Amino acid sequence: MGMYDRIRFDEARECPNCGEEIESVQTKKFRKVLDTYEVGDCVDHAEETRIAGEDTYCSNCSERINPLVYLVVDRGILVGVADTMEEAKQVLDEMSKEKLVFMYHDLYDRLRGERRERRKYSGLLKEVGEWYAKSEEEREDMSPFEEFGFRKSRFLKNAPTPLQAIHDFLSYEKLLDTLDDLEDEKESLKIYWLEDIEEGREKWAVDVLNDKLNERCRTNWVWTVISQAQLDEEGNEITNIAPWHVSTEDEYSEGAVVDAVSNWLSRRSYDLDVDVISVEEAEGSGTLEKLEELSEKDLESERYVPLEDWLENGGDKVDDL
User: Residue 171 belongs to what domain range?
Assistant: First the structure.
């Protein structure tokens, strides 16, 4: 088939044969670099103003569909996708210099954002390389001033390998991006945890779950709220562990967990309400989902071999399972 680009529709088209929604169309009319564009993107040279017709394809019934869709380009910007040539011409006729300027401004803002993202990730890779180039003894002997030069040290200190440090950083960034989305959706965060801890306990820690965050970020839990007394007993400082750990001076209570999570969000300028729900009210995700899956398995059946038996067999695969 060769190289092509994909144009994502603002609104899905319906296949007239099977009713399946068609969300995009492939085209070879532009740069053919296997990129995906949508209205407002720069798809061609700045001097290009044209209408390009493309037939759509339904992946469900494997049929090419007529009539065509029309891709409207003005000064290199994809300004619309129309179902008829008349509609496409109308889109071009209604385009003004002001609209194009706004589109170029949006593109420039996105370019700046992408540039910041590249700098952020290239900075991480540079720090990972420098950190793991040092021996374990050298890292332990680093002065606070030397350590200050590693802006991502909270990820580096807790990762046994460079790959784990990168994974943790990406997971954290995904969490922040998802919180941005939830803030736009204006929904409260419904949190819960599985630990059963006596009220008023001084040394404690809980892993806090939120179903939406767990599912979108593919995590087992979102935050670990830990008391300062527990940190002291473990010989840890909050600045030396991953940034999804939240410390509190309070003894254990439901309110202490809510306050800790709320403060964590507030320090990062998120305006999100936090509500506690019971485990029974939760949809089930992350750790809870895995525990529920485990509880449904018949651990007494012959398909499950006790660990000690498996070790006695040298870790070999057991036949007839």
Answer: 101-185
